[in-house]
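ok trying this again, last paste got cut off
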Amino acid sequence: MLKYRFFLSVLLCLLVLASCSKYSKLLKGTDNEAKYQAALDYYEKKNYDRALQLFDVMQAYYRTKPEGENIAYLTAECYFNKKDYYIASSYYKRFVTRYPISKKAEEALYKSAMCYYIVSPKISLDQSDSYTAIKEFQNFVDIYPNSTRVDDVNARIDTLRMKIEEKEYDICQLYFKMEEYQAAITSYEAFLKDHPQTTHREEILNNMVINYFRYAEKSVPSKQRERYEQALEKYNTLCYVFPDSEYIAKLEPTVKKVREKLEKYKSNK
């Protein structure tokens, strides 16, 4: 049994060495047609590293030939299948630039955007790749407005925007919880401006009432009145926009204190 296993191991090693030797000779040789066919074969067998090496040494030779287009596209595909998405995106864009009227140009531009969509991280992390994906998808729609992929692209853009919205909302909430009053106000106002249809508006208005009240309480006397007034203004907006909000009743003790403070300012005139 041990001799049999040893024999198999030796045979396997010999086959690997022979394969490597054959590949090395092919790579260094001058038969570009053989290289091209071998590269396609390696690609079909999902041996993307070897396919890429062969595609790379052939690109100059086939650049102005019909095979050049296929080599350029499959190079991007190799990186995509290897999950090297940043590199893949770069090669897809290079393909579109080099072959703008190719039948594969639309798919290449779509996949270039998909690369950034795939690497778009979870909400808690930096969303730079999400912004890039949106930009790339929007570029796709601008160039191919009648593509059958437009609905899919728009759905993905919506998903990315929701992710970015949640990330920005989490930052607002962090400032609020840390009682960074001015930072919370600035971030909440910017958030509502950037996301007018947000589902978080009701909670944000509630938080801004509380935030302005606490900010006023901690402020120097010359700034307190203005901040109490802003707290009341946000409360009135909440009541107007969300008359059935559960936050209204919860805010009554705070708003009562705000009104008492403002009444004192009136009586001291």
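PB: full thing came through this time. Residues 13-19 have pLDDT under 50 and may be disordered.
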